[in-house]
Amino acid sequence: GRVARGVSAIVVFPRSHAWSDKFAAIGARVIHERETGLPVGARAAAAGSSAPWTDARVWRTLSFYRSHLSGHPAACRAWRSRIAAIGPDLVYLNNELPLNFSVADAARSLGLPVIAHLRGVKPLRLPHRRFAPHLSAGIAISDFVRAHHLAAGFPAGLIHRVYNGIDAADYPFREPRATIPPDGGALLFLGRLAGWKGAETLLDAAARLMMMRPRLTVTVAGDGPERRPMEERAVSLRLGDRVRFPGFVADPVPLLHEADVLVHTSTEPEPFGRV
Predict the structure, then answer these.
(1) Following CA atoms 186, 187, 193, 199 in sequence, which dihedral angle do they give, to the nearest 10 degrees?
(2) 152-158: long-range contacts at Cβ-Cβ below 8 A with a sequence spacing of 24 or more?
(3) For residue range 206-246, what is the model confidence (pLDDT) as tens digits?
(4) What's the whole-model pTM score?
(5) Distance CA 14, CA 32 (A)
């Protein structure tokens, strides 16, 4: 819509993305930051550790401040340089503030307005809360996400709730099957394969269901850091070829039409899942 009104858009992805070509097709300039050597920014939690105590709130808090203090200044300098070279009038963050904080801080230091599309409820620590006066606007995708930011001290007039939307024409309706076979059925999981999305919960449940429904099938569509562990989990549960992992699926409609049940297994609060 902005491009059609003569506004130029520069879209930055971490790497080549399924939507890169779509943005380029409407005239946006697309940059892949990891292909230019630009640092992504400080990580909010220690990566690669599976010890139970690393999930404790105190550990997560201390880990955030350690990574923030060590990585944030350098990331800000890199983003400030990149943003200054582009010369935008406004910086729009297409995800929650903690995931883009080095970009937000860099934009603020250049005196640019910053809008954040708030798509989650990651902990808002002291640096994020102190950024509130510098945020031009926040777009919360649900009342739950908005309340999370208000509780952290963000002004009520700053955070606007705008629900996620889809174009219904992209999802043609198909009549469901009248009955699901008593010895089978097709379950579908759609989503990013990250721990809190609960794909492991689905596999454990499917293993038990298959004792009663020997022809049951499960499709786990998506990609992410937990994909390999999920595939290994399916092997250890002896699910065989009754579970498939097609990876990221650009058009989920055929899978939705094949499935009998869509299973949503998030184990932490879901901000507003479009799935």
Answers:
(1) -130
(2) 152/124, 152/128, 153/129, 154/129, 158/132
(3) 999 999 999 999 999 999 888 999 999 999 999 988 999 99
(4) 0.77
(5) 5
